[in-house]
Predict the 3D structure of the following.
Amino acid sequence: MNPIQLIRRFGALPLVALPATGVALLGVSDPAADTRLDGIEAAAVGDALPPGWDVRAVSGEEAPVTEVVTDSTHGKVLRFTSVDQAAFFGNELDTKLDAGTGVLRWNWRVDRTLLEADLDEPAADDSLARLMVVFGDRGLFARPDILFYTWGNEETVGIDFPSRVSDKLHIIVLRNHEDPTGAWVTEERDLLADYRAAFGEDPEPVTAIGFMSDTENLPTEGISFLGPVVWEPNR
């Protein structure tokens, strides 16, 4: 799956805005408080997506099936079941975040590794779990910069590289086939440092987060989960 197709669609069309409760979650009244960016807590078990989320399916492909489910570790989480499918799921933030004021922490999980996947091969660049962070304005003529944190296969953990299709997209491999499946993994990233390393300058504010599950190239199937996505201010 070529992720830039989804990015262009995401940039060209507005996402559904967060409800008023989303503003409170962003911690406007207390900038030192941890901030949930995923909105999963506001969803009901059985909902397809949390409030404020939108989906952009790949042209000609069905989107993975999503559902808010209960997990013993994190409470309510978002499950993605992908069977030869691919789509991008995004949550636009009502309040922009300054990447230099904190760190991004999230929890994710996959039930298996796609052992035939190759992120550098157009015919096999599938992944069950990718977290996307969007910097800057979006719209019909906008080209936002995007960090694309990815669960790979045989790629070396920590490797990063620009997308072959756009210099606005930078891929960072956080997990591979050696990491545990069926278990939650917590990530914590300094977005300012990652952005500077990828693009060589300071970023514009973070305007959206997203998640992608993609099994349409190989094709195959698998399940992934997204747990709490938290902005943790510097203290």
